[in-house]
Design goal:
alpha+beta, 7 helices, 2 strands, binds adenosine-3',5'-cyclic-monophosphate, cytoplasm, Nucleoside_diP_kinase_AS, ATP-binding
Length: 137
């Protein structure tokens, strides 16, 4: 998910380009205004954390771009492309390392495990919104 800060800073194309250049396949994508309810469900694992309320408010404050990418090892690889949660410690060359300075404005969220990805895909997308296709060239 490209978060509100990533969308507002005009980084949607850059993020998509990095995933495309790596060789992953885009199978779902939508720009959407997130409800508080969806944001709370998505970040349920953090509900006891002090930053939870602010995080939910931020994610539902302006549009995000939700995406589903497919490919061998995509979850682990995407986390490397995205970089560490805190952009200040994320390696240069990663998305957060190249474009961010704040943990609360770290541009993008990526699923942390295959199981989480499945849960998040089900939360964010209906099956009709996902394309089943393989690149042929
Ligand atoms: P994300 O990968 O979306 O998962 C949880 C998010 O919580 C994380 O990225 C950060 O944007 C946010 N987060 C983590 N720690 C803090 C913090 N200390 N203050 C504010 N936001 C945080």
């Amino acid at each position: 998910m490209i978060k509100p800060d990533g969308v507002q800073r005009g980084l949607v194309g850059e993020v998509i380009s990095r995933f495309e250049a790596k060789g992953f396949t885009l199978v779902g994508m939508k720009l959407m205004q997130v409800s508080k309810e969806l944001a709370e469900k998505h970040y349920d694992v953090h509900k006891e954390r002090p930053f939870f309320k602010g995080l939910v408010e931020f994610i539902s404050s302006s549009p995000v771009v939700a995406m589903v990418w497919e490919g061998d090892g995509v979850v682990a690889s995407a986390r490397k492309l995205i970089g560490a949660t805190n952009p200040l410690t994320a390696e240069p060359g990663t998305i957060r390392g190249d474009y961010g300075v704040s943990v609360g404005r770290n541009l993008i969220h990526g699923s942390d495990a295959i199981e989480t990805a499945q849960t998040e895909i089900n939360l964010w997308f209906s099956s009709e919104e996902l394309a089943s296709w393989q690149p042929t060239m």
